Amino acid sequence: MKQERESLEFDIVFVGAGPANLASAIHLGRLLKRCNARSEKALDPAIAVIDKGRYAGAHLISGAVLDPRTLDEFFPDYRESGCPVEAIVSNERIWYLTEKKKFHFPFLPEPFSNRGNLLVSLSRLGSWLAGEAEKEGVQLFDNTAAAAPFVENGRLAGILTDDKGVDREGNLKGNHEPGLLLKARTVVIGEGSDGSLLRRISGLFPPDTAAAPQRYETGVKEMWSIPPGRLKTGEVHHMFGHPLPSGIYGGGWLYAFSPTLLSVGFITSVEPALPACDPHFNLQRFKQHPLLSGILEGGRMIESGARCLTSGGVDAMPPLYGPGFLVTGESAGMVNLQRRKGVHLAMKSGTLAAETLFEALLHDDFSIDRLKTYDERFRKSWAFDELNAARNYRKAFDRGLYAGLVQAGLQLTFPGFSIDESNGHSRDEKTKAGSKKVPSGIAGKELFRPDGLLTFSKEDSLFRSGTMHEENQPCHLKIKAEDIEEICLKKCTGEFANPCIHFCPAKVYEITAEPVPSLRLNPSNCLHCKTCEIADPYGIITWTPPEGGGGPGYKLS
Ligand SMILES: Cc1cc2nc3c(=O)[nH]c(=O)nc-3n(C[C@H](O)[C@H](O)[C@H](O)COP(=O)(O)OP(=O)(O)OC[C@H]3O[C@@H](n4cnc5c(N)ncnc54)[C@H](O)[C@@H]3O)c2cc1C
Ligand code: SF4
User: Fold this and answer.
1) Contact between 17 and 191 (Cβ < 8 Å)
2) From the CB of 458, is ligand 2 less than 6 Å away?
3) Is residue 530 within 6 Å of ligand 2 at its C-beta?
4) pTM score, two decimals?
5) Does the beta carbon of 506 sit less than 6 angstroms from any atom of ligand 2?
6) Which residues make up the CATH 3.50.50.60 domain(s) of the chain?
7) H/E element holding 238?
8) How confident is residue 413, by pLDDT bands cut at 50, 70 and 90?
9) For residues 65 and 42, what is the distance between their CA atoms, to the nearest angstrom?
10) Omega within 30 of 0 (cis) for the link into 227
11) How far, in Å, CA of 527 to CA of 459, rounded?
12) Rounded to an integer, what is the distance from CA 487 to the centroid of its chain?
């Protein structure tokens, strides 16, 4: 029998426990404490943070070199308070790789410099920040996905969380628990890149002015344990070139958390025009370069994962507020790709949102005019200035690696410089499905055999991501039956040879030929990276959150 949905009332609900919303919740808690210490009438709002991961940090994955600027601002004693910093960047290099050779850039321009920055595991940082948020009186709900918006009187008035205990066919199981209605005076959306809730909210409250289309990259990352003596703690290496041809944007990294613990990863542009590009394969080929293979030889890959990140910059940002909601961090596209960084910007947006919410609580005013002050704060902040100066960086690479590097160089002297100011806005035309050729690397893929030592199959990588889902639940990847029949198995097979089998890093999509051609989905493999929703050339895949708690279980990523 269907049970009633329980309703809980909060003042603020944060959707997503990433660095953006956790910084926001901590800063808000501290502002309230400081205010209450001075005032007779205490403010005691109910604040909740929800996350679909099965523990705090389970879905957080990043490089990560962290610019500590925001931490210094809102949490100056973070080191003494136990913040998990793995290392401080000690020296760094940028390399251009050909298949066998390497060339390092003779000098490091200031914006690329990581001097004084920190090496962190985002998963560990997130878990620590979540503990600090709880110390500020914030209620944390892990295993909980925001499945749908709740709209009342023309504004977002809360969210519905995921139903549990529903079987594959939609029947209620014995352990069925309907999701909760979490009512809130303001919902703060910090789902990271390509949020499923934000997509729905943007449909309900369409922006007045259109931003440039968002761009995305997919990062595939591995943590390695290696024998000592090869790298020093804090070494940072960034690479361009191999294995990508010049026409495709991407690059790799290697960060030494210690002489024996490394973060290795590769980012590949996700474009409908390049649907057959395979980010997992690109990382495997990257590691075969002698620079990498020499360092990794005899080591052990201990964790693996993937996630897409936004790269459209300030021109592609969605509105930061709407009736009843604020948008923080990567949900708002706050990544500076020129610096390969988003964590400090996510945290900064979170603290600015906290200051806005604090004033809203103080004045008992959650009107749109009050929420709008978050946008004003952001535009006056260093975070906006940083994003604005780098706004044309990614667009320049539409003309290929070499033109991109020239423009990136010019931007260092003339921040925001672009050869063609309009190119970010004409992306739809440039990246029309099929407008680029399938990258040459894909041809070699047929012959590629992972050795299980340096290179891995998608199954092997998945095994090391800690991914788990309740198997008997409705498929969270929604594709209409008629689209499978008419598009996947006919049109797409002819036009693109079913690129979903390439771009998904977790082998969720398989096309089987016998007894009749069919699309087989393995949703339990899903890493929640969101690549499929973006790379699908026909836009027929909708990613929805599975039962809360499902997905990867990162510990070091
Ligand atoms: C491979 C890779 C490497 C990177 N390297 C760096 C780097 O070296 N330095 C750097 O500064 N930045 C780096 N970035 C970018 C950086 O990680 C992000 O910009 C930053 O993590 C964004 O923070 P966020 O809080 O906005 O979102 P996220 O960190 O993505 O966190 C969002 C959280 O929301 C949860 N969530 C999402 N949807 C829902 C929902 N509907 N219901 C409930 N919970 C939900 C997720 O589970 C997740 O925990 C990298 C990114 C990637 C992918
Ligand atoms: S199915 Fe999951 S793992 Fe595969 S591309 Fe989509 S979101 Fe990523």
Assistant:
1) no
2) no
3) yes
4) 0.96
5) yes
6) 7-73+125-212+315-389
7) strand 235-241
8) low
9) 39
10) no
11) 12
12) 28
